[in-house]
Design brief:
The protein has 453 residues and is of the alpha/beta class. It is built from 13 helices and 19 strands.
Length: 453
């Protein structure tokens, strides 16, 4: 991370390390500074740490950097960084030239002390990691740099929109580093988010962005590319989504001339399955009767097809139809489902399956909360449209787009809404074509979707 900073600007440095832990990032920065700075230059480190068990070892490690020969000084501030930062911002202070961060990951409750404090300096966000980055950016002087390793979840979705606007309005996005294999980069941790390293520079014009990637934290297979900013944050996108290209995919879907529609403008919708099973335990059934509706879980789908009911299934196969459950049921018909939970290391991010009513009884249908459901105004899809969605969503061109777009371990309905789509006519053509085959291969799907013009 210390290597991300502009080497031409590391001379007289006032470094902020918020959530410093044992001081590893500050020490790495100091090592780099010592290798490049002249004798007359100085490095001053301000390290914030709230955990009292870490403060003493942090002080010891940073004090070991100090000597009459190095011109390095350090201070460790024990306590809440958010409160200290907000106070400095309100007094108009911008004391730092650089900030290096591995911030804590913790949701911020609306109305909490942290939320109230940050809102008082126009920072609205939902997690401490993004709050720390925003505060650090506010505390560095003009042309100051912030380098942080943070989850990728801020890049899209409505919850981080204010944070994206905050950083992109106040700074230039200089570089992004991707870890292509989360299980290698963070093998000692139970990491559920994909992490990236970002570098921001305050108050300078936006230029092209350096995108780098490596398999793990050793950076032994580092690859670097320069990408126009307009291909990362689309000028026409008011949500300021950040699209990060990776070395194993392309922008083929974005550039494809036939995939320019949104779900909304083709009259379709996608929603999270409304049935949360533990809240309706008394209505669940292992075996369906004539008074029950099929309840579909991810486990009811295999190789893009529905397998219901399942014998010896750990979950329910059905849900009672009554006044308590009717509001959650969909009319019988064709639907497309995509499981919500996935991870980057799996073969596919999107796995779409067909709900064929011919495999179900003459009743409404229940969808469990771990599925995303494509529908038309809470009703079924036209059959060829549904089959066309199966072809399109299971293509590599779409899967690569989703891998670039989303760093979640979930495939959310929100993510699927922002996917580019074919128009209804083309979806119907895909669906009609697919009925000529009993089982489509991945090569057939990819050739059809990528080759259409």
């Amino acid at each position: 991370m210390a290597g991300q900073f502009d080497s031409k600007r590391i001379s007289d440095v006032k470094l902020l390390d918020a959530g410093a832990g044992f001081g590893s990032l500050s020490i790495a920065f100091a090592d780099r500074w010592l290798a490049s700075a002249d004798a007359e230059h100085s490095l001053s480190i301000s390290a914030y740490e709230i955990d009292p068990n870490l403060v003493l070892p942090l002080r010891t490690r940073l004090s070991n950097l100090e000597s009459s020969e190095t011109s390095i000084s350090s201070e460790v501030i024990e306590g809440d960084f958010v409160g200290h930062a907000v106070s400095m911002i309100k007094h108009g202070n911008e004391p730092f030239s650089h900030a290096i961060l591995n911030p804590p990951y913790m949701k911020i409750r609306s109305g909490s002390a942290a939320h109230t404090l940050m809102a008082s300096v126009e920072i609205e966000t939902v997690n401490l990691y993004s709050g720390f980055v925003a505060l650090a950016l506010a505390l560095v002087r003009q042309e100051g740099e912030v380098v942080a390793i943070i989850p990728r979840s801020f890049c899209n979705g409505p919850y981080y929109r204010s944070f994206r606007e905050f950083i992109l309005e106040r700074s230039s996005l200089k570089s992004i580093h991707l870890f292509e294999k989360r299980d290698k980069a963070f093998s000692k941790d139970n990491v559920l988010q994909e992490n990236i390293i970002i570098r921001l520079q305050k108050g300078v014009p936006q230029e092209d962005v350096v995108i780098s990637s490596s398999s793990d934290g050793s950076f032994s297979d580092l690859e670097t590319n320069v990408v126009p900013y307009e291909e990362i944050v689309f000028p026409s996108d008011p949500r300021k989504f950040i699209h990060i290209p990776s070395k194993d995919s392309s922008d083929a879907l974005i550039r494809h001339p036939r995939y320019k529609s949104t779900l909304e403008n083709i009259g379709l919708s996608v929603s999270t399955g409304p049935i949360v099973d533990f809240r309706v335990k008394e209505h669940l059934r292992k075996k369906a009767s004539s008074e029950d509706a099929p309840l579909l879980y991810p486990g009811h789908f295999s190789e893009r097809m529905l397998n219901w009911p399942r014998e010896n299934f750990k979950k329910a196969n059905a849900i009672a139809i009554n006044s308590n459950t009717k509001r959650w049921l969909y009319p019988r018909g064709f639907y497309v489902v995509v499981r919500r939970f996935s991870s980057k290391e799996e073969d596919r991010r999107i796995v779409a399956s067909l709900v064929d009513p011919n495999r179900l009884p003459e009743t409404p249908i229940g969808f469990e909360n771990h599925l995303n459901v494509f529908h038309q105004k809470k009703g079924p899809l036209e059959e060829n449209v549904a089959r066309g969605l199966i072809v399109y969503l299971n293509s590599d061109i779409v899967d690569n787009w989703m891998r670039n777009f989303s760093g979640h371990t979930q495939v959310n309905a929100t993510d699927l809404r922002y996917l580019p789509y074919p128009d209804l006519q083309l979806l119907s053509r895909f669906g009609e074509w697919s009925t000529n085959y009993s089982k489509l291969s991945q090569v057939q799907i990819d050739n059809k979707v990528a080759g259409i013009r």
